[in-house]
């Protein structure tokens, strides 16, 4: 029996994150360490998003967040100073291994900040669409043909000599 997943309902409602299919496929392939650290991606409203990562055992100094082009990279390295010298683990369930997690961001998504509280790293994202790319309403007017042509030329940015 093979496992197949139908992500098509998710693709219809994705706003803000590009290449979501690649992220979902990478999460379901079962690669070693692909699920560490666990994270949530949330949509707060139409233009604000958040990524929350469980980074227990890491401090702010152990983490590095880099945003470049359309990619957000979160990496962590611990110094391993939490265990007294000579101590032996009887069970080690808290993963404190180094990691690097990459997120593909859609155009016009900007990282606005990051905060860490109770072992959770929260990264704030905002979608800022430039004014010239936002939809605008063009009024339709009735009247003489000459006046309509003048308005059309003004709208398209062409001016008659």
Distance between the termini: 72 Å
Please state how the strands of the largest beta sheet are arranged side by side: 1-2-7-6
Using only C-alpha atoms, the radius of gyration works out to 24 Å
User: What pattern of helices and strands is seen along the backbone?
Assistant: HHEEEEEEEH
Looking at CATH, which topology would you report?
Immunoglobulin-like
The proportion of residues in beta strands is 25-35%
Q: How many independent structural domains? A: 1
Mean pLDDT: 75
Helix content: 10-25%
Biggest β-sheet, characterized?
A: 4 strands, antiparallel
Tell me the number of strands.
7
Shape: elongated
Category by helix and strand content:
alpha+beta
Number of helices: 3
CATH architecture: Sandwich
By CATH reckoning, the class would read Mainly Beta
Give unreliable regions as ranges. 27-32
Descriptors for this entry?
single chain; 161 residues; alpha+beta; Immunoglobulin-like; four-stranded antiparallel beta sheet; 29% strand
Write up what this structure looks like.
- This protein has 161 residues and is α+β, with helices and mostly antiparallel strands.
- The protein has one domain: Immunoglobulin-like, CATH 2.60.40.790.
- Helix content is 16%, strand content 29%.
- The strands form 2 sheets. Strands 1-2-7-6 form a 4-stranded antiparallel sheet, with no helix packed on it. Strands 3-4-5 form a 3-stranded antiparallel sheet, with no helix packed on it.
- The termini are far apart.
